[in-house]
Specification:
Pfam family, one (chain B): Annexin
Organism (chain B): Olea europaea subsp. europaea
Distance between the termini of chain A: 19 Å
Oligomer: heterodimer
Distance between the termini of chain B: 37 Å
GO molecular function, one term (chain B): calcium ion binding
InterPro entries (chain B): Annexin, Annexin_repeat, Annexin_sf
Number of strands of chain B: 2
Strand order of the largest sheet of chain B: 1-2
Order of helices and strands of chain A: HHHHHHHHHHHHHHHHHHH
Number of strands of chain A: 0
Structural class of chain B: mainly alpha
Largest sheet of chain B: 2 strands, antiparallel
Protein name (chain B): Annexin D4
Amino acid sequence: MATLKVPSSVPPAEEDSEQLRKAFAGNKLMENNEALIIQILAHRNAAQLKLIRETYAATYGEDLLKDLDSELWSDFQRALLLWTLDPTERDAYLVNEANKQLTSSNWVIMEIACTRSSNDLFLVRKEYHARYKRSLEEDVAYHTTGDYRKLLVPLVSAFRYEGDEVNMMLAKSEAKILHEKICDKAYNHEEVIRILTTRSKAQINATLNQYNSQFGNAINKDLKSDPKDDYLSLLRATIKCLTRPEKYFEKTLRLAINKLGKDEWALTRVVVTQAEVNMQCIKEEYHKRNSVPLERAIAGDTSGDYENLLLALIGHEDA
Amino acid sequence: MAVSDELGALTRAFSGLGVDEKALISILGKWHPEQRQTYRKGTRDFFIEDERQFERWDDYHVIQLQHEFLRFKHAIVLWTMHPWERDARLLKEALHKGPQHKVLVEVACTRLSDELLGARKAYHSLFDQSVEEDVAFGIRGPERKLLVALVSSYRYEGTKVNEGIAKSEAKFLSSAIKGAAGNKNLLENEEVVRIVATRSKPHLTLVYNHYKEITGNYLDEDLEGELYLQETVQCLCKPQEYFSKVLDASMRPDVDELKKEAVTRIIVTRADVDMKLLKQEYNHKYGVSLPNKIEDVANGNYRDFLLTLVARGD
């Protein structure tokens, strides 16, 4: 469920647009205008944001996000920018950015590929064509190697069936296959990749339940043989994203807030991409796991406008 | 018509693709029992002498005849189908009927990106599974990775290409092919698969051209014998040539049923796409016009239907 809070009566896009123009005046974000920007943008949904952007462009002849590709050194600016992008554009932007980076980029690609719906992922691929004049999969393939490529290219190319039907016999036999390969430490085996990158989420869920029943351990426990192995971590995260995304996002947030992960933009990314999707669930998960509400954790880790924007997006009152 | 002429006409009515319904009606329809018996006794191909003294239809030929009678129906149904459903069913058949994995390459590589997406959506509806999970599960050989990648592709379709990268990828392919030197294991080469499975068609055309400049040879010819890679490159870079080849091979006498079905498949799926170019290519390659060839090898309603579709390119 979304945490985004939109006022019950939303001003017309022209009014929002005018206010934002004033706040952005002079191409620099003035100190006291950032609160106004948050007040507007952090309380509009994707459709409303789109309308505001269109109105702004029609009225002032420039894109609200004209600073899109410039150096964004402020967490606040980056979060604002990502938030104001249309979700499909945002995901395409994140994947493209990930392709250019060296570290933690694989995680972003995996996260987007596994937690979006089949249709949404395809919309991202379409948007990627329009924006970057190449296909998403060709860029991911070109910028990855070895086991990462073996896993990520099929993940971003998948168009998983989304029904609930499950074939129990198949689940049993594929659980066996997974167990076999894991025992052989063949974590990059074709069959492991095949099962995780092509089966529907419902089918994978059933397979992993079978794995647990037949072999006594949850699959991710068996995949913990080498805590330093980055590929194995990615594999475990893939499985989590496909079956329990809210748990994956909770952990990602936890590591980011405690500065334990290598993923410096994880906090921004998770809050912005999930605010309208699943943040309520993630908040509950976070509270359960950490005994402290997410709002408090974010407030403790961030400050200023960045903090205010994040808190607004996760539904914190009077932000 | 003299009897021998009638027999000749009847034989022709039953041979080739489809049946000549009019001839069958006008000849068989008026034959008395004795004439039909003469026909049975004289046509050893279709009828065998049963031990209890009667001429019996040969089972194998009845099945053959069934295919020929149904060829028109199959063409109509395929033609009327939504292209998404049609391609989804073709993909499914390619996996299970035969199997004919090359048809997977054909469908995946000759459709536009959004058409392939549509086929994948229809596949969900029709079969409650994704095409990639079926392909991955149903294929065990070294071609699995290539085929899964091909059906999963969503190639960029704009004209923007990167000359530098195309050159280096052409160079890479040239050394990879030399290195493989007839070992037929290019399918295991991840980079080769990456290039053919993810790059856009305009980009690959550039690669194809650079390859010719570098090596003096055509990329698809150098891939002769490489399972599926040759078809992949042909479908992506020279589809009309590919289709002409397959059509011609399917129209030869005495090919099996699966091969014959290619005629319907290709004509129906290309009629609205590039039939004009296909006809030109066919003529250029084989020295005979496609309509004339079809007149030769096909009969009746089936023939007339094919000719109507083929004429759409004019």
